[in-house]
Each structure stands twice: as C-alpha cells, then as structure tokens.
C-alpha cells in the first residue's frame, strides 16, 4: 500500500489506532410522509476515528441494525490503516459480507430512499467513515475538509426550509419529546410552519413533503405558500405516491410556481413518461440513488435534477463524482436529506461548497432536530450555512450529549432502533398499512 501513514509536511502520524462506534437515538417530531409518520426517536451512528497522534475525526451515518452489523467488523479492519487512504475504504468495505436477507426484495426505508442493494448498504456505512477520515486528515494537515476536496467555490451553502405535515405531538402513552413547531395539517398550518422557518433560519426556498393527503389539498398548500412567499422557489415531493396522470395534473396546476417537482411517481419508466409531457423539471432521490441507475434515467431524460446524499452515495468524494456526471449530462444536482445531526450537516456543507454546478438550495432535516452531539450547533443564517475554514469539519463533539443519547439507545427495548414509519403510524392507527403505490 503506497498511501503514507506519516504526513510529509507536518510529520503527523496518520495511522488509525482506534475506532469508536456509538449508536444513539435522537428525538424526532411526528413528521408525516407517504409511508406513515416519524418515530419519536430515530437511530444514528456516531463514528470517532483516532490516529496515533491522538487526533480524532468525526463521522455520522444511519444507525439501524443493518448498518451497525456492517460498521462493527468494518471498523476493526481499519485499525493500522491511514486516514489518508480514502480509496482503501471502499476496498475494505468489499471484504465485509452483507447478509442476503438485508437486501433481497428490500427497499430503503420503505422505498423513500429507493432500492436496497448490498453495495448501497456498504456505501452507507463507508460514507460515515470517509467523513471521519477526512475530518482527522484535515485536522492533521491544518486544512478544512473542503480544501481536501479541492477547495470551496462558494463561502455559504444555501438550504431550503423542509416543510412537513405534522401532528402537534406523538401519540399519548409512548415516550417522546415535545417539540415547539405545533401542528400542520392543512394549507394554513403549512404556511405558518414556513413562516417559522423563515423567522428562525431565513430560508428563502421551501420544499413540502407530500404524498400524505389527496393531491388537491397538497396543491392548495403549495398555492398558499406561493401567495405567502411570492417568488420563493417551491418544491413538492410525494415520494412517488401518484400515477403518471395524477403527476401531470398536479404539475399542470402548479407549473407557474414550482422550481421542480420531486419524485411525483415511482420508477424511471414512469418518471420518463411524466418528463416527456412537461417542461417542469423533475428531481429525484428515489429512482437514481446508485451509480448503476444513472445511465437509464439520464438517457431516457427521466430526471432533470438528482438529489445527492453523501450517506448512501458513499461519501463526499463520490458525491463530487455524481455531480461531475450530472454536469456532463446537463442534469442539475442538489441534496436530499434524512434525519441527521450537525456532523452530517457540516459534511454536507463542505462538499456542497466544492460543487460548481449546485444551483438549488439543499434539503436538510437539521432544523427538526432539537438534539445534537456537538458542543455548538451548526447555524443557518439567511437560509445558509457558512462554510467553515477551520481544520477538518470545524465541529466539536460534546461527549456528555453523546453519552446521553447513547444511554437512550441502550435503554430502548429495541423498538426505536429500527426506523419504521409505518409501525410508528400504527401506534395511532392500528389498521394502518403503507398504501399501495400509486395511491392517487
Ligand atoms: O424523498 C425525500 O426527500 C426523503 O425521503 C426525505 C426524508 O426521508 C423524508 O421523506 C422523511 O424522512 O420523511
Ligand atoms: Mg425526495
């Protein structure tokens, strides 16, 4: 292996001596989507990689069992390697077996993140370790992560306000934390939520998570937003809940105010059928979620914007590769988000800062997370995060906070350790089954 374990300029020893994995449960509000509702707590995995010199890099990824069972043996294999050996992270991942039942006939979070393959599972684990290696390497070299990716092309990264239909609180009788967002179950509730987003964070564009109510109500919500925030870029994302015809009807009703329509219908073929009959751009984080899916989707002109997500695309450098492919095909790129904490927001911001063809505000769930493992939260100002020039990611772990969220994970009887939005919905509605798609 030719990757140096000693940094020539600084003399820092980059050898990995310890990897610490801490599964946690993070409070999550009752956000509704096409599958059901978010659980009161969601699993995340915090990764700490330490070098011989005692430098520690931080990473974050999904924390459900299927990720933990890969992350544990993978972490062991990294001891003795260099944090600079970023390509080696993928080689080592191929040595970790993925259980067949984890991928056979499976989709990712009920399909919210598209297909589930062994490769994608591995990449979803590698990404957290890649971020931790980059953080450690940056600290060792005195360079921010964006510099390790080639350097920032912007000083701030814009995010959109991610609006959700939501209940005022989780169902009574189960452990949960109260949030201060209130209920939003109709157009006026959504506008009120958007006003709160704007007041607290300054977001200029908004995305509404749809596929919850019949399309007429969701059209009314977007119309109400357009009226309340004239000129703001707006997006609607029903996670594939509509047929091709319904998709076209909704697009027709909203085409004057939509920046893009996100995953109106399921699968590349149906997206291509919609795309062929509208000029409104279609975005996806469902039918293009792996490199293998790009060729068909792009050659059929099924999507005009790909919403990358460094967690399942395999890290920050793969995200840049994806952006380069999109650029070559004239396809736009932006960022998808699931529930995540500040380590991931910092990582998203570093990579987004380096992508020249990023022309849409990125998604982020972070405002919905009242808890974090950082000593200082990452701040949104005027709807954007300032790109840090501090070494590494530029964030600091608060061990007490990490320990408290880990204790919650330890105390859990197992129910919250797997994200399952349909099961969470059944707590309120025992007959709930995720509807067959297209639902409308
Ligand atoms: O399609 C999307 O943008 C997402 O899947 C984002 C999130 O997963 C969101 O839908 C959620 O967590 O409910
Ligand atoms: Mg989406």
Automatic annotation (TrEMBL):
Requisite cofactors: Mg(2+)
According to the record, the signal peptide region is none
Q: What is its EC number?
A: 4.2.1.40
Which InterPro entries does the UniProt record give? DgoD-like, Enolase-like_C_sf, Enolase-like_N, Enolase_C-like, GlucD-like, Mandelate_racemase_C, Mandelate_racemase_N_dom
Pfam families the UniProt entry points to: MR_MLE_C (PF13378), MR_MLE_N (PF02746)
Q: What class of enzyme is it?
A: lyase
Q: Which UniProt keywords apply?
A: Lyase, Magnesium, Metal-binding
Q: In which pathway does it act?
A: Carbohydrate acid metabolism; D-glucarate degradation; 2,5-dioxopentanoate from D-glucarate: step 1/2
Instruction: Please list the residue ranges annotated as the Mandelate racemase/muconate lactonizing enzyme C-terminal domain.
Output: 187-281
Listed under catalytic activity are:
D-glucarate = 5-dehydro-4-deoxy-D-glucarate + H2O
The record's family statement is: Belongs to the mandelate racemase/muconate lactonizing enzyme family. GlucD subfamily.
PANTHER family membership: D-GALACTONATE DEHYDRATASE-RELATED (PTHR48080), GLUCARATE DEHYDRATASE (PTHR48080:SF4)
What is the protein name stated in its UniProt record?
A: glucarate dehydratase
Recorded source organism is Streptomyces monticola
